[in-house]
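## retry 2 of 3
previous attempt timed out at serialization; input unchanged, resubmitting
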Amino acid sequence: MKPVSIAILAGGQSDRFKPSKALASVADKPLFLHVVDACEAYSDEIFVVVHSMTERDQFSAHFPKEKIITDIASDVRGPLVGALTAFEHAQNPYTQLLPCDSPLIHEMFFEIMWSMVENHHAAVPRWPNGWVEPLHSVFATEIAQEVAAQCLENHEPRMQCLIDNIGRVIYLSTKALARFDSKLFTFTNVNTPSDLYRIEQSLRRQPQR
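## retry succeeded, writing output
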């Protein structure tokens, strides 16, 4: 295994799903556990970042409580807070961020991203139109922690602030990823109940991990 921690961010708001879309039942288990399954063979440190102690208690019914980390700032919500919490907790030189609602990650995604990030501070997937996928990115843990903390101190809560200021970013074109993940299911996520249904059908068609 490469020295990369994997942090699954599950502290975002999910207005269409109560208490949390991460806990929504999909193919007989909570959605976030499918993300855990997708990456458990690739890292010796996988943990879930939630927003509050209440959420930690909810998630601990399905996952070891010591692997559920609560946001360092309970009064601020957003992925950058979750990312900073992840960087502060991670024990490896690099930290792979993943959203809690993207369970169809292709196994080659990790290998390619992690090989690219060597000698860089971040590896970030980017679409042809310039949009990036910060919650599927991998960061050099120590410097990412410093930059994320500075962004929040400056009241810049966007993940883009981290990417813009971390330096030595290498971008991976989604066209390159499509060579092995033709429909780019790696980035498929859940925003509506119909998305949840489509992901469930895809998961049920997959071989058992």
